[in-house]
């Protein structure tokens, strides 16, 4: 234990996970800046492309952020003509999100390069390592996801 009574191994693992996240995030930011996209905007494009007509709540769940943050991101994307919001025919109180032709074009341009970058980064690991690290990371995600579900104060 350290001076604060916290297990050193826990702090070490946490710092390692945070460093991994920051390395990946920096790679994504660098790549996506070539398309004038933030990481959040790219993931919104990707999820809306995969789920045309998705609502704000489901998009927020996929993006692992609050509905208010998703709304802010989508609003900016609407202003840039990347996303359009339509009324939900089954529920007049909610909206469905779709990519505009400009949003589709941008996604089709950026996504293949994103996949190439992922492949390049992950090619440093052999098949056995990939399987092992995938199992471990999925286990960590299952443990941590319920803990951080309500970060940001939205209920």
Structure description:
With 155 residues, the chain is mainly alpha-helical. It is built from six helices and two strands, in the order H-H-H-H-E-E-H-H. The protein has a two-stranded antiparallel ribbon. The longest helix is centred in the first third of the chain and has 26 residues, at 8-33. The two termini are 35 Å apart. The relative contact order is 0.11. Residues 149-155 have low confidence and may be disordered.
Please write the string of helix (H) and strand (E) elements.
HHHHEEHH
Low-confidence stretches: 149-155
Radius of gyration: 18 Å
State the separation between the terminal residues, measured CA to CA: 35 Å
Q: Kindly report the spatial arrangement of strands forming the biggest sheet.
A: 1-2
Largest sheet entry = 2 strands, antiparallel
Number of E strands: 2
Secondary-structure-based class equals mainly alpha
């Amino acid at each position: 234990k350290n001076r604060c009574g916290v297990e050193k191994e826990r702090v070490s693992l946490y710092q390692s996970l945070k460093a991994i996240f920051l390395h990946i995030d920096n790679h994504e930011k660098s790549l996506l800046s070539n398309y004038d996209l933030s990481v959040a905007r790219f993931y919104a494009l990707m999820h809306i492309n995969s789920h045309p007509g998705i609502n704000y709540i489901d998009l927020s769940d996929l993006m692992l952020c609050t509905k208010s943050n998703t709304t802010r991101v989508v609003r900016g994307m609407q202003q840039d003509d990347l996303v359009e919001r339509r009324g939900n025919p089954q529920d007049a109180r909610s909206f469905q999100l779709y990519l505009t032709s400009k949003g589709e074009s941008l996604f089709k341009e950026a996504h293949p390069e994103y996949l190439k970058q992922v492949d390049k980064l992950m090619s440093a690991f052999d098949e056995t390592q990939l399987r092992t690290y995938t199992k471990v990371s999925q286990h960590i995600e299952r443990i941590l996801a319920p803990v951080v579900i309500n970060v940001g104060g939205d209920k």
